[in-house]
């Protein structure tokens, strides 16, 4: 279990940035609220900063439009100027929502669209067509702090359509966030006895010929499924342009993974790893930690509703125990998945972002910490009373 006080202090750049925001916004806080009020002020909790560090004495101001207006020093807040003030309990931590990447959360009854079928290059498939906003597991997941689900098609072809990210909210209408990225694949999952390619040699030939045509699908960074070490090595031998380096989904990597080649790519390189589970692959865990130490930005793969709801934080806790920097692990839980999915209005407690927030009883890297309160688009829901955080049933299929 991690000591909650063991976190790095934010660098001077972050301090100056946040203090500048505070000065700009604090001037308005000493005046009474205008008609309609100024939304919600959340005070008293440590706040997760974009760099992955925790810092106290900040108040988060949420506007009536469901977005974060500012972070300001808690001592500057005039509580009378707000429609509502939420005073967080001592020791609690306010973060963005957790993000379930590459799972099937929210696909009840519609999972068929997550298969690309027999089409080798399918850039028209939309994983979002599988989403069922009435799925009750969405609200269950949200009560565990998981506020986003990113769906991708199974990696059966070279191009498997676009990913899709949704807010975890059981409702009659869906809230789709950001533009989806192309789901690409290189590995055994693409090989088939019923169509080409039937061998890795043929698959690599198809990849090279396709890339030479300058396809639209490669003009922006996509998601590249390269589960094993050999897949990643072969992918790195392809002629990627500097502005289209994909996010590598490397969920089965081990000590043979060519991290010496990954670190030479233009920065930042992003990689999706895991889930890291008790009793799982030690080699994959150590590969992920080594990648992080070499400057690769990680995100932890999801898997809901098949796995336990705390698996994301469990992956991060295991990685930190194995030597990963705590701030890097928090980025892998919150800000990095937003970049991976293209849901750029999420992932940070910062001005202009969606007010999708989670209040934990302690550091989210501490698996003993529980969810106290969640906000989706600024709308709050109490999960457990402060000081009386009850054990919640894991989300399982």
Count of separate DSSP helical elements: 9
User: What's the CATH architecture of the largest domain?
Assistant: Alpha-Beta Barrel
Assess the beta-strand content as a share of residues.
Answer: 15-25%
Output the CATH homologous superfamily of the largest domain: Metal-dependent hydrolases
Determine Rg (CA atoms, Å): 21 Å
Give the mean pLDDT. 86
And the CATH topology of the largest domain? TIM Barrel
Q: For the record, give the distance between the C-alpha atoms at the N and C termini, rounded to a whole number.
A: 28 Å
Widest sheet: strand order? Answer: 9-11-13-14-15-16-17
Low-confidence stretches: 1-10, 15-36, 387-397
Which series of helices and strands comes N to C?
A: HEEEEEEEEEHEEEEHEHEHEHEHHHEEE
Major pleated sheet = 7 strands, mixed
Number of domains: 2
Helical content band: 10-25%
CATH class category of the largest domain: Alpha Beta
Number of strands: 20
Structural class: alpha/beta
Which descriptor suits the 3D outline? globular
